[in-house]
Please model this.
Amino acid sequence: MTSADFTSDEMMTIAASRALSNSDVCFVGIGAPSAACNVARLSHAPDITLIYESGTIGTAPQVLPLSIGDGELCDTAVTTVSVPEMFRYWLQGGRVTVGFLGAAQLDRFGNINTTVIGDYDHPKTRLPGGGGAPEIASSCGEIFITLKQSKRSMVSKIDFFTSFGHGEGGDHRQRIGMTTRGPTLLVTDLAIWKPDPETKEFVVTSLHPGVTRETVQETCGWSVRFATDLEETPAPTAAELAVLRDLKARTEKAHGGSKKNGAES
Amino acid sequence: MAKSIPLAQAVAENLNPGDTVAFEGFTHLIPHAAAHEAIRQNIGDLTLIRMTPDVIYDQMIGMGLAKKIIFSYAGNPGVGLLRRLRDSIENGWPHRIEFEEHSHSAMANAYEAGAAGLPCAVFRGYKGAGLKEVNPNIRSVTCPFTGEELAAVPAIRPDVSFIHAQKADRKGNVLVEGIIGIQKEAVLAARRAVVTVEEVVDDLGTHTNACVLPNWTISAISVVPGGAHPSYAHGYYDRDNASYLEWDEIAADRDRFLAWMKTNVLEADPADFADRIKGLETAR
Model:
């Protein structure tokens, strides 16, 4: 059963949540990734292990945290470890299967910028920076990325390599000594993208219901490639929408209504 | 051995102009009261270290007390950007601070190396990352056993670290609970350490593997109920999310920022923090 009445944001979160499974150990970025990971946990993947970089392992919040260090993440976690232990034993140690990131700027090879717009030393806009992202991008088994499409965020050339995706494409990751898979999935509000097996350029593999190729291209700063066997993303089911909307309603209530989900980490 | 003294005295005795200082806290237990005391005492020319500089470093930078900042994520958690830090870096107001930027992994390893008495930290990181092109303190070493190239950064050794914790016992042993972040490493890496606590108790009432800092690792303890506000103290009071949202507006305008600092910091007192957590207390 599907519901025809859903927003593109809801479609994005739900499509991203479907990519996660019960056996995943997922390093969760704040904002859109956090919503998708918790929808997965509250629907088809109840045993997924969610990790936030504040040290909370196996956390199960009832509401979406405003920050990566909200108290509820700790209260509901299997265990809470120190920050050095988190980054050394758990992330660097190779225990995390999926890193789920957002981005301020993204290019076609899944390279991410959350550091500066403009020149590094004299930036037009100084963004918060990478936080955990540089090593999340290299140490997790694979990387999922989620963001809303716009020409500002999806650019032909990012201003700064905060975290490395597929670099210039092809085998660039292996050439610089990375052994993990890097970005394997991009979920936007309009489509699902996966890297070409050879070039590693993101290719649209599925359009969300009602979305046209033209809309995807108009909101993307590079020339978009579409898969030959382009699919349509299944619309959110009533059950999926109920889980997401309940979660958002609980979150609004808990954070006093006016919360914004801006920062990455 | 930890001296139990008022916060004004603890800051005056342990923080000097030109010091390298860490006010640590990873979203939780951020030492706001201690930072405000440093601002009141107008102690400047500081090198500020913190993984996640947020509101307190925005305030110190805006008041002109920072020479340099060493950090890995400079944002208002869950809200957005730091507007005073941006004004300094983008426009040079009130002056342009120097900055040294790392990843969380590097900073966490560097604090741990400082606590361990090592000169540098070695870890697998910065592969393909732009920071190593712009930060000369990001270098590499070759593993003598496997030949793997690994990232290296200098250990963090602050002149003084400030942290906030839940409680101390009467001998000055300190318990940190919940999201413990990098606080233990920040204290053990520093030459001096000042801890503000919610309360002093007869017995810490904890278990054998808890995060306890023995009294001889701490220079001074000051009791400041609510001293982490608008951050939180697990088991005592919740995070004041509205204040973080409000800060985004206050910090957006130089005059509004200065007026806010005058009223809420320069003309305020550590005892005011107890009032600021009213209504946020958690059931115990």
Helices of chain A lie at 8-18, 32-42, 71-75, 83-92, 133-139, 172-175, 213-218, 238-254.
